[in-house]
Every structure is written in C-alpha cells, then in structure tokens.
Design goal:
With 652 residues, this protein is an alpha+beta fold. It has 3 domains: 227 residues, Aminohydrolase, N-terminal nucleophile (Ntn) domain (Glutamine Phosphoribosylpyrophosphate, subunit 1, domain 1, 4-Layer Sandwich), CATH 3.60.20.10; 356 residues, Rossmann fold (3-Layer(aba) Sandwich); 64 residues, no CATH class. The chain contains 27 helices and 17 strands.
Length: 652
C-alpha cells in the first residue's frame, strides 16, 4: 500500500533535475501513504515524471523500491495496492523467460504488463491496485485502476500539464497546479455527501473509473478501456437456480476462505477491524480458522450507548479467541480530530463515519501495519435497510398515477416533522422509529419519484435540490455511464419484475456509493495513519459469484445477507450476531447543537457565506436554525456543508 503521483509536461522544457525535484515535492504531500521510503523517476526527453511513497508490506528490501524500472529497461511503474496471486503469475512469467530481482508484487505487475500488455495483465490480477505505467518505446502512459475502485486514482489537465496521482493534494507540489472549483460537481457532492466519479471537486480533473485503463500519448487525447465492467457482468451472469442451499453455502465459504487467506500474506504484522456485525465477524472467523495464533482485532467504543457496538465485538472476539483491542472514546476525544479531516480528505467528503473509521485505524496502527475489513457485504448481499424498504414502497407506488402520488406527498408534508413526532407517541416505544417526522417527510419526497432511477436517487440524497444551494451551478449526471432503463428492462425480462428494483439499487451502490464513499472513507482514514486496509469480500471472484445468485439467497423471510449468514453461523453462533443494524455512526446531530456549535457557527455565518459567493446563505441558515431549535434533524445536510467549508478553508 502506497501513494503515487506524477505529471507529464508535454513541452518537455524542464531539466532532469527540475523534473525529479518537482516529483519529490509532490510525493512529500502524500507522505503518510508511504512513510518507509520515497522515490522519483523521470524521462527528461518526454517531460514525464513519477513519484512514489512506499508503505512496505511484501519484500521489505530495496528490491521493492519504486518507481521501478523493468528488467529490460523498457518500462517503468509507480503502483499503489496489493495483488494476492503474485506468486502464481511470477511462475508463469519465469516460464516465459522473465527475470526477477526481488519478490515484490510490484515487480510482478511491471513484468506482466511488459510481457503480456496492460489489459491482459490486469485480467489476471487478483487484488486492489492503481498504477501509472510508462512504456518507453511507445512513449505512452497507462493509468490503471482496479475492478471495484478500492484504490484511488485522479487524473486531469491543468495549465497544459497532465497530472495523475492517488490524492489531489499531491498536485499542490507542482508549480503549475492552479485548479478551479467545479460548481457543478459541488452540487453532486451536496446530494450524496461525496463527489461521484468520474468527477472531482476541481474542473478538468477526474476520478478514473474502476476497472479502467486510461491511455495517453503525445497527442494528449486520452482513451479509456474497461477491462472489467460490473454492468456487463450483472447482465450476463447466469443465476445458479439449480444448486441447493448447502451447495451454495459451501461454494461461497470456499471462495471467501481463499480470498481471506490470500489477504493474510504480509511481511509485517496483520490484524482486522471487528464491529461484531455479520461482515467483519465472518472475515475474522475465517482468518482465525487458518491462523496458528490469535488474530489481533480492533474496535472503537463510544460512551454514548446509542452509538456503541463495542460489546458485540467483544462477544464475537471472545468466542473466536482473538487478541482483541478496544478503545473507549469520549465525545471530546472524537471531536478533537474533526479539524484534521480536511488534511486527509483532500476533496470534500461528508460521511460522518469517517470519524470512527479514522479512530479505529489509528488504534490498529499501534499494533499492526495491515488490517482486514468487512466492507462490501451490504452491497453484495443486499444488507442495507433501504433495499427492503425501497422494494416495499416502490411495489405499492409504481401502480399509482404520478399525480396521485404527488398529492399524497403534499398531504404528508402539510404537517411539520415535530407534529408527526407527537403523533408517533401513540406507537409503543420499542417499535417506534427514531426521528419519525423526518422519516415521514423523506417518504413524501420518495413518493414523487417517477422512475426507478429517480426513486433510488431520492432515497440516497441529502439535499434534494442541491443546484439551489450552489450559486451559478447546474447539477451533473450522477452515473452517466449506466443505461439504467436498459438495465431495469433486462432484469424485468429475467422474470424478476418485483425484485428488479433491489438489483438495480445494488448495482448503483456498487458503482457509486461503494467506491466513492465507503472505499474512499477507508482509504483516506487508513492511509492517514499509514495502515493498509484489505477488503476480502470485494475479491472480484466473490463479486461475480454473488451477482449470479437469485435474490432469495440474499434476502429470505425478511432477513438480509441470508447466504452470507449461513457461512458465518458455521463459525459464530447466531445469538452473538442477531441485533438491529446500527451502522458505524456518531451523534453528530447532538454535537452540532452542543460542543461543535461554535465551530459550525463560524463556518456557516451568513456574512461569511455571502462574501465567499459559492453557497446560498439563506437556505443554509434556515436549516441551521431549524436544526438548533430541535424541530428538524438536518445533521447530514449540514455536515456536508460544514465539511465543504472546512475543505475550502484548507485547500482553496
């Protein structure tokens, strides 16, 4: 796990020393991604330079140093990530006459790209990776991102220079870097609380799509090639209807066991995050199954009991016999890291679970250099509450005329959320939803959706009309590369009309929410403390297997992640796992009314917003006043604004 950066000055008017110096300065901006060594390389005649910050995991010797030149001298790579089948690929390359200096996976990737070509090599890799690859003879640069988007890679042109790297802040080390805010991308950020790919917060700078190879030569005309496409897989995968529950459970366990064992290969100490939920408990159980000694596990505990899952993790850890570490935090300790967030989230990012993710990463780094995570289970096995909720609501709504739905929504919104909260007191507390009034208004918003795409967007949106919040803006398409109408029709043709919405929501989550929110959060938080996070549930072989499962293997009798649970219950008793889904949150709404109020008030001051000229003060102040009064809970909408404001102060 590392950080990469680089640039291509097409004028080629810099000296060798100038290119190397600039690459080193750019690398220094992402030093926490790789504190073990830094390297720089350039080809002066072309004007290309690469920088690399190394977190040594496999082959700790100088033989793994990057940027790395191939044995033939014909190509160079700067690489971030890990591939877990490097030994098998190395054997094949040795049989073809390739020579190796060390045993790093970097060298395997480099020699494979040179021997077989970039696309064919990528087809064979199992793992997470983002790399820049320079082919000297072709004078061509390849930028590559792994299938799911576990590792980040930005690219774009600015002031006549091509920039590329793991994080935007590395570009600040280049003297010609002069970015401008993309107001249209900012609207997408306010809708989702993250900037969705292929956009970035800066004009002309993009996130490389997962599973993509971008090729650039001196013509400065980028060409994209998808070497793995989840949309195609979702439409082509044959469902395994004729296999028994037992056969599918066995197949899944074998796949997961292999995925986990491959990710336990490291020349440094290794552990795992453990929340006590289904996904992380299964990963730890499979790790402990093959480990001769107790696996080190880590969780964060909060003194606010409504947000504390540590007791569940401790019960699972005790059952599995892990070496468990839990750090209990006060609100003050958690709040103290908030000013640091823009330093490691160098693009606006507002998933509040970034706070506990950073804290558990920092705890783990005291003991290990690599930690496995259970991320991906919700997307693959339909674990999010919104899937069943969405299916139940959409099945009822889609047969009603749109005008009737709109009228019903208007009726629901006539009563303020506070009034709905009072009415909800007639419902027994044990079954009464939290924030009932806000949920009624959310339902009213959802009811007005005319298509499955709009239905999904309204469910996941924070600001329903973000273009009204950002001055002089127009909202961009959130997923322009997906033909949703075609995909929805394909699912319906497969005879699963009633459940096609869930499959569509899963697909969109895999394409957007997973890489742009969940994996971004894990990458930035772990890399901020120089910790490598590995995600075995997102092994592409597991993904392809899951996409061929009928929905009844994911949701059965109202229980989500059904098949995944069957594997887990062979290792951990059901009684230790069964509980309502909590998520990985913090009481940010309470904090904004209390200890964070002064900090937030400074960032949301009306005169400040007016002078900056980016956001509409009136709309924001209205929500702030309503939130402070307790009549509405606008915590996530306001947190998105606050994280943008904190980012703007740091980076603009």
């Amino acid at each position: 796990m590392c950080g990469i950066t680089g640039f291509w000055n097409f004028k080629a008017d810099q000296t060798n020393a100038e290119l190397l110096t600039t690459a080193k300065v750019m690398t220094a901006q992402i030093n926490t991604r790789g504190p073990d060594s830094w390297g720089a390389w350039c080809e002066q005649t072309a004007g290309v330079a690469m920088g690399h910050a190394r977190l040594a995991i496999v082959d700790l010797t100088a033989a793994g140093h990057q940027p790395m030149t191939s044995h033939s001298g014909g190509s160079v790579i700067a690489y971030n990530g890990e591939i877990y089948n490097a030994d098998e690929i190395r054997k094949d390359l040795l049989a073809e006459g390739c020579q190796f200096r060390g045993h790093s996976d970097t060298e395997v990737i480099l020699e494979a790209c040179e021997a077989w070509g970039v696309e064919q090599a990528c087809q064979r890799f199992i793992g997470m990776f983002a790399f820049s690859y320079w082919h000297k003879q072709q004078q061509r640069l390849f930028l590559v991102r792994d299938r799911v988007g576990i590792k980040p890679l930005y690219w774009g042109f600015n002031q006549g220079v091509l920039f590329f790297g793991s994080q935007l802040k590395s570009f600040t080390g280049h003297p010609k870097w002069s970015p401008t805010l993309d107001s249209n991308a900012l609207t997408a950020y306010l809708r989702f609380n993250y900037v969705p790919a292929p956009y970035s917060i800066y004009s002309g700078v993009h996130k490389l799509q997962p599973g993509t190879i971008l090729t650039i030569d001196a013509s400065q005309q980028p060409k994209e090639l998808r070497f793995w496409n989840l949309v195609d897989i979702a439409q082509k995968q044959q469902q395994r209807h004729n296999l028994s529950d037992g056969d599918l459970t066995q197949q899944l366990e074998q796949l997961l066991q292999d995925a986990v064992q491959r990710r336990m290969i490291a020349d440094v100490p290794l552990g795992a995050f453990l929340s006590g939920g289904v996904d992380s408990s299964l990963v730890v159980a499979l790790m402990q199954k093959v480990s001769p000694k107790p696996i080190k596990t880590f969780t964060i505990g909060f003194k606010e009991t409504d947000f504390d899952e540590s007791s569940y993790a401790e019960r699972v850890a005790k059952h599995l016999g892990t070496d468990h570490h839990c750090l209990y935090l006060s609100s003050q300790e958690a709040q103290s890291i908030i000013p640091e967030i823009p330093n490691w989230c160098d693009e606006p990012f507002a998933d509040v679970s970034q706070i506990p993710t950073f804290l558990v990463s920092r705890l783990a780094r005291r003991f290990v250099t690599v930690s496995l995570s259970g991320d991906g289970g919700d997307e693959l096995f339909a674990g999010y509450n919104r899937y069943l909720f969405g299916q139940n609501i959409w099945q009822k709504l889609r047969y009603l005329p749109h005008w009737l739905r709109a009228a019903g929504a208007k009726s629901l919104m006539r009563l303020a959320p506070s009034t709905w909260d009072k009415l909800a007191h007639i419902v027994p507390q044990q079954i009464r939803p939290n924030l009932f009034g806000d949920k009624v208004h959310k339902l009213a918003e959802i009811m007005q959706a005319a298509t499955p795409e709009e239905f999904y967007k309204r469910i996941v949106s924070q600001w329903q009309n973000p273009a009204q919040v950002v001055k002089n803006s127009k909202e961009v398409a959130a997923y322009p590369w997906v033909n949703l109408e075609q995909h929805f029709a394909h699912l319906a043709q497969g005879g699963d009309k009633n459940n096609s919405l869930i499959a569509t929501m899963q697909l969109l989550d895999m394409l957007t929410y997973l890489p742009d929110d969940i994996l971004t959060k894990v990458d930035r938080a772990s890399m901020a403390v120089s910790l490598e996070a590995r995600v075995p549930l997102l092994d592409h072989r597991v993904i392809e297997f899951c996409w061929g499962l009928p929905l009844q293997m994911k949701i059965r009798a109202g229980e989500s992640k059904w098949l995944l649970r069957q594997v887990l219950y062979q290792h951990v008793p059901r009684a230790l796992i069964e509980r309502p889904k909590m998520g990985f949150g913090v009481p940010i709404g309470q904090w904004l009314r209390g200890p964070l109020r002064e900090w937030a008030e400074n960032l949301l001051a009306a005169d400040k917003l007016e002078i900056e000229g980016i956001l509409e003060p009136g709309l924001i102040r209205q929500k702030w006043v309503e939130h402070l009064s307790g009549n509405r809970n606008w915590q996530y909408q306001l947190w998105g604004i606050l994280m943008f404001q904190a980012w703007r102060e740091r980076w603009l």
